[in-house]
Please model this.
Amino acid sequence: TCRGEDGLTLRSWRIALVVWMGLIFLMAGRQMSADVTEEVFGSLNYLFRKAAHIVEYGILTYLWMRSIWTVPERLRSCLVWSVVLSVFYAVTDEVHQSFVPQRLGTWSDLVYDTVGALVMGCTLWWIRQRGSTDLRNRVLGMENGPGSDQAMVK
Model:
């Protein structure tokens, strides 16, 4: 297994992915309903909940990318697949929530999830194309793993 500059193996990234997906599944439970979180965030509840959707699916997209990107020349397709798989998981999350008491599966939440996945996918592509060498190494783990400078994607 190849290690990125961060020292993490592909297996480590895949474990992180599964753990993150599990956390998303748990957050779809009753304990995270709007009524419960409103007690914590008050009038900012809506803003925090929607921002959480964007952030959690951005992170999921990043973890998918790090878990499936093994060939430097295939970053573009890995990013597309990472976004697609994240949005698919968002759909299943909303369906799951529709069966949980005090929760609703909504299309608007799916839109926020999709925005998070797309923003992360575009950000990662921008980093690959225009980011400094240091930024690419830190975010994409490119120095010792997939995507070294010798195999720049066009």
User: Anything to note?
Assistant: The chain has six helices and no strands. The two ends are 26 Å apart (CA to CA).
